[in-house]
Design a protein that fits this description.
It is a single chain. This protein is α+β, with helices and mostly antiparallel strands and 345 residues long. It has two domains: 129 residues, 3-Layer(aba) Sandwich (Rossmann fold); 160 residues, Hnrnp arginine n-methyltransferase1, CATH 2.70.160.11. Helices cover 31% and strands 30% of the residues. The protein is built from eight helices and 17 strands. The chain is globular and about 70 Å long.
Length: 345
């Protein structure tokens, strides 16, 4: 009897707590100013929790395409006289590469506890010119400007780890006019794609399972489940692209201004390879120079990055037809608020 009463009380408390949190969240998100602050804080908390997990860093270290590209770029561009900032040091691998090059001074920052691991690794490798500081980048203050900013602030959706805001802030405050950002150039693609059959997940109202169909859900689904159209796939899950790929966005962190960055993408392309349109894949290329780069395109060497896939109602597209794609990115760092549509003519 006592246990049942205690369970009832706990359920009531937890239900009230849940409703209170939902009410507070909705109130905060109702106003543009508090909504932006709320989203930024939630993003920082999620990133801190995510990048404290050791498995995340084990996967990143095992990503040979990524680590080899950074190693080649750092050994090419970091000189013994240089001072370096590494933003989001994680396991410390990029700072350790810079230390191997003999960089005069390295400041490695991270806002999660993983920085303690990086410090241990540096000591074990007897690389003492690295100062590890647990802080957010916008709180970092230095007595002198630096020669190089190292970073790997590339999220699944490219922008969702606040790359533009954090890097441009460090650039404007702490990078020498003659300095360098590694990597600085990015190309972003949103391409019409067909998935390999075993990895395809049709929208729910498109499915018919042993005579049980879900078509009646379409009006409700399209009103309420827009975020459910998004999923993530491995690059190799994509069978092929229907159109000739073209850069949707191109920017250089040395010159870009976040406030001037486009928030919409619209294009019209001709189908060059007939097939079923399952949705649009987002992939990127990060370029250190014209020779050193990495990315997560379907034909690139495999990296740790998944590919966001924006599902659309499936449609067979013959060669010569036109695919129109529209994407709104009202908040770059909040891809759950992105909205997209397409039209096949």
């Amino acid at each position: 009897m006592v246990n049942r009463l205690l369970e009832t009380i706990l359920r009531l408390v937890l239900r009230l707590e849940h409703r209170l949190m939902l009410w507070l969240k909705h109130r905060l998100q109702a106003r543009p100013l508090t909504s932006r602050v709320y989203d930024r804080i939630i993003l920082e908390m999620k990133n801190r929790e995510h990048f404290t997990e050791m498995l995340v860093h084990e996967r990143l270290l095992a990503d040979q395409a990524r680590t080899d590209a950074y190693y080649r770029a750092i050994t090419r561009y970091v000189a013994p006289t240089d001072t370096v900032i590494e933003l989001g040091t994680g396991s410390g691998i990029l700072s350790l590469f810079a230390a191997q090059c003999g960089a005069r001074k390295i400041v490695a920052i991270d806002h999660s506890d993983i920085i303690d691991v990086a410090n241990r690794v540096a000591k074990a490798n007897e690389l003492g010119q690295i100062a590890f500081i647990k802080t957010r980048s916008k709180q970092l203050r230095l007595a002198e400007r630096v020669d190089v900013i190292l970073h790997e602030q590339i999220g699944k959706y490219v922008f969702d780890e606040q790359m533009l805001a954090n890097i441009t802030d460090l650039r404007d405050r702490l990078l020498k006019p003659s300095g360098r950002i590694l990597p600085s150039r990015f190309e972003v693609f949103f391409e019409a794609a067909k998935l390999r059959e075993k990895y395809r997940v049709p929208l729910m109202w498109e499915q018919d399972i042993h005579g049980v169909h879900f078509a009646g859900l379409r009006p409700w689904y399209e009103r309420t489940v827009d975020p459910g159209k998004r999923m993530h796939v491995r690059p190799e899950h994509i069978d092929y692209l229907l159109c000739q790929p073209e850069k949707a966005l191109e920017f250089d962190l040395m010159t870009v201004r976040e406030e001037d960055f486009p928030r919409t993408i619209s294009y019209s392309r001709s189908v060059v390879k007939s097939g079923r349109l399952d949705g649009f894949c987002l992939y990127f290329r990060a370029l250190f120079d014209d020779e050193i780069a990495f990315g997560n395109a379907p034909w690139d060497e495999t990296t740790d990055w998944m590919v966001p896939f924006f599902r659309t109602p499936s449609e067979d597209c013959a060669s010569g037809r036109t695919i129109e794609f529209n994407l709104s990115m009202a908040e770059l760092t909040a891809p759950e608020k992105w909205r997209w549509s397409c039209n096949v003519k």
